[in-house]
Amino acid sequence: MSEHVEGKKIAFLITQSKFGGAQHYVLSLARYFKERNEVVVLVGEAKHQDEFFFKEAAALGIRVIVLDNLIRGISLVKAYDAVLEIRRLLAKERFDILHLNSSMGGALGSCAAWLLGFDPLAKRVRVLYTVHGFVFNEPLAPVRKKVYELIEKFSAGWKGAIITVSEFDRQAGIRHKIAPPARMVTIHNGIDQQAGGLTRQEARSFFHLPDDAFVVGLTASFYPTKNIPLLIDVIADAKRTIPAIRLVLIGNGPERQTITDTIAKHGIDAVVTMVESVPEWYRYAAAFDAVALPSVKEGFSYALLETGRAGVPIIATNVGGTPELIVHGVDGLLVQSGDRVGLTAALVEVAKKPQEARNRARHLQQRIAREFSRDEMLKKTEAIYLRLLTAGKPAASA
């Protein structure tokens, strides 16, 4: 049997194009599988498209189809329309593999593939699903948590394989009885090991930062799960001990107004630099003395992988798959989610003991090179594709 998937038609489905970890993941896989196959990306949230995502896909020569009815939120009418839209597209395009990403995309895409199976003339499609962090692990109202849990559980039977990007999420899936343990496998995100970058002076010049400042960086989509207002509180607290502290926030999203309001509340506008988008942000990572990620929920963060590859000290919360990447006190510093005092203390420690912080960063840099390569991620994912393609029955069957 060949070690590679060849001559197949593969679709990657994702709920939205707003660039983040899941979008990075989809484009990484699409770029690789495009070498031997025909690849198409299906993306929802037609009214909120991310120009950067489409430019990246175009540069890779990847065809993108926008789904008019697939949205992030829960709407029975939209969900029904999205299932029918995806089913029509599957029948027309005749994909061999449908790789689903995100909760709504995973549920509705797998339902559409299952419905397609009732058409005796339709080509059978193999379905797999990557979990980039179960939504029911987010700090939601109990009713909403239960709804998302039931969506995952009900649709799991239509998926031939479920990839989790962290063992944390795999264990959560097992505890919640989402699917049999044998159908879920952990494949950590991986990145290219070679990436050029600017010097410290060049990177600081780009952000207009003084050379003697202690600079904390963060790149993220501004969603509530990132808990960026807490980081603003922490910067205000740490400024009493580190007068030269500065914060650079790279990103945008629904929490932007809350973030700017928090900055104004503390009167630290001159301390915080906000940049909506920096393509290949990691090339500028040398500007930072530390990167801090105060999330309440994570899958397996590409931003932390890229930070670690650049050799920048990391402070993060002990959530999701982050402890699988960072061993506290060895590769970086971890604090409990929501711990304002602990996060402040960790920032002060990095500022006061820079050599120890750099040693931890160097250790993480070496671990990433050994354990979290893009090639390894692709190899393990391709093995699942091959298994599904050679299985006796279609993965989308009920």
From TrEMBL:
<dbReference type="InterPro" id="IPR001296">
    <property type="entry name" value="Glyco_trans_1"/>
</dbReference>
<protein>
    <recommendedName>
        <fullName>Glycosyltransferase subfamily 4-like N-terminal domain-containing protein</fullName>
    </recommendedName>
</protein>
<dbReference type="Pfam" id="PF13439">
    <property type="entry name" value="Glyco_transf_4"/>
</dbReference>
<feature type="domain" description="Glycosyltransferase subfamily 4-like N-terminal">
    <location>
        <begin position="19"/>
        <end position="193"/>
    </location>
</feature>
<dbReference type="Pfam" id="PF00534">
    <property type="entry name" value="Glycos_transf_1"/>
</dbReference>
<dbReference type="InterPro" id="IPR028098">
    <property type="entry name" value="Glyco_trans_4-like_N"/>
</dbReference>
<feature type="domain" description="Glycosyl transferase family 1">
    <location>
        <begin position="201"/>
        <end position="360"/>
    </location>
</feature>
<dbReference type="GO" id="GO:0016757">
    <property type="term" value="F:glycosyltransferase activity"/>
</dbReference>
